[in-house]
């Protein structure tokens, strides 16, 4: 294969720059601007109340224009900043004592609207926003925002939290589906009485008439169960599509979801048994988990993971895809123009290298675009008790100080590649030059 030399551009200025997750378009519609966040410190998770600059970079010069500050952010997913048109964007921020959102004009630099509701993703027509309860996600160890208490901290599956839908014109906000309703859907795979539940990673299908999301909760043995769910944007036909170890995903088309993982089986069902939460049984869990992993999983080959195609039907239909080609978890995003084409990445290998790649479904061909190395800097852990404020102690007991501070810091810099709206350019975050930055390049010659 010919070596590819990407002509990369990046943001110019002081501090660090990043966008966030792989499920949003960072470029303006005319491709002249790219949204980004500008923290000065990345070697620890955000502190309560800590604010960072946000704005955009000129895609020709790389110069950064600061518009404002927000404390509603995390390093993996940013502040969910999204373009409404070429001149306006929406971004999460704290509004009073709530997580909300604000709209800014890039010409004047002024805030022009605000909402008492945070947003996660927007409909294509920019009329509807879908949001989550970030204070709950933070409390349960997910990618939430620090600084606001979870008002439902005593409720394992509240009826007043869940997936929200917001009309950006009327500002009407309502629950599309509650955590309680999700936890009670397909109760045999949910185990709703075991632990606290949360919803994360909502993504709209291409036609914007259904939205998929991950439902997560902790098992009695300390593991986590993930269920891939979907629901119509009118609140109709809530479905559980897959259960097991499930990770990053995108919609291939209106009926099919492309996701990394493995679906659960008998071993997974055994782990959800409430007997494992018994204090007399818990000391034996380490031995039990090793037994299940080394004996039962090996026999049934259930540890084998791959990308999966999951049909959004009442009766689940799941098959493996790109076996032996896409061999590990990554962050896929389908081209908005050609949904046979994805941009994807990998986690760091033993040399600390992440791979950026294209994959063509039609030809079943993977094409590696570049290798980007992580840096060896260790996270700053002296602020551990501040950066973990609001997180349940039983969650913190599962992870070391160092690992928590690293995975929630800007040092843990996944590429999270993402397309522009017309499928000709990509942008990604990286730390390979010694600082965190946002990079972009045109790849039209590679896909024509």
UniProtKB/TrEMBL annotation:
SUPFAM superfamilies: DPP6 N-terminal domain-like. It comes from the Bacteria. This is Uncharacterized protein.
């Amino acid at each position: 294969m010919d070596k590819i030399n990407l002509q990369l551009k990046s943001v110019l200025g002081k501090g660090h720059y990043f966008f966030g997750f792989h499920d949003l378009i960072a470029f303006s519609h005319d491709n002249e601007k790219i949204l980004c966040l500008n923290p000065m410190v990345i070697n620890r998770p955000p502190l309560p109340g800590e604010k960072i600059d946000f704005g955009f970079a000129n895609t020709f010069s790389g110069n950064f224009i600061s518009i404002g500050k927000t404390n509603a952010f995390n390093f993996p997913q940013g502040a969910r900043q999204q373009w409404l048109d070429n001149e306006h964007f929406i971004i999460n921020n704290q509004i009073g004592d709530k997580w909300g959102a604000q709209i800014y004009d890039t010409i004047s630099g002024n805030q022009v609207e605000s909402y008492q509701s945070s947003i996660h993703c927007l409909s294509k027509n920019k009329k509807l926003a879908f949001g989550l309860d970030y204070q709950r996600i933070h409390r349960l160890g997910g990618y939430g925002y620090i600084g606001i208490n979870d008002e439902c901290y005593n409720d394992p599956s509240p009826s007043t939290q869940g997936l929200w839908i917001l009309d950006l014109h009327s500002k009407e906000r309502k629950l599309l589906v509650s955590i309680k309703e999700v936890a009670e859907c397909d109760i045999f795979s949910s185990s709703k009485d075991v632990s606290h539940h949360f919803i994360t990673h909502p993504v709209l299908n291409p036609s914007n008439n259904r939205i998929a999301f991950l439902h997560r909760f902790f098992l009695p043995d300390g593991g986590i169960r993930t269920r891939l769910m979907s629901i119509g944007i009118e609140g109709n036909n809530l479905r559980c599509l897959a259960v097991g170890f499930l990770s990053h995903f995108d919609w291939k088309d209106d009926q099919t979801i492309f996701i990394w993982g493995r679906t659960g089986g008998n071993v997974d069902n055994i782990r959800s048994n409430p007997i494992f939460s018994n204090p007399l049984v818990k000391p034996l869990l380490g031995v039990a988990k090793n037994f299940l992993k080394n004996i039962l999983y090996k026999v049934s080959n259930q540890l084998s993971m791959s990308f999966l195609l999951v049909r959004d039907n009442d009766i689940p239909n799941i098959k493996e895809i790109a076996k032996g080609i896409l061999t590990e978890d990554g962050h896929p995003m389908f081209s908005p123009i050609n949904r046979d084409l994805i941009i994807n990445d990998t986690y760091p290998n033993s040399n600390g290298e992440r791979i950026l790649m294209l994959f063509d479904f039609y030809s079943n061909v993977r094409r590696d675009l570049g290798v980007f190395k992580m840096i060896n800097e260790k996270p700053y852990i002296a602020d551990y008790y501040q950066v973990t404020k609001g997180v349940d102690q039983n969650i913190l007991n599962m992870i070391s100080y160092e690992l928590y501070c690293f995975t929630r810091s800007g040092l843990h810099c996944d590429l999270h590649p993402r397309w522009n709206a017309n499928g000709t350019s990509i942008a990604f975050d990286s730390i390979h030059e010694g600082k965190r930055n946002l990079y972009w390049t045109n790849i039209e010659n590679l896909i024509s």
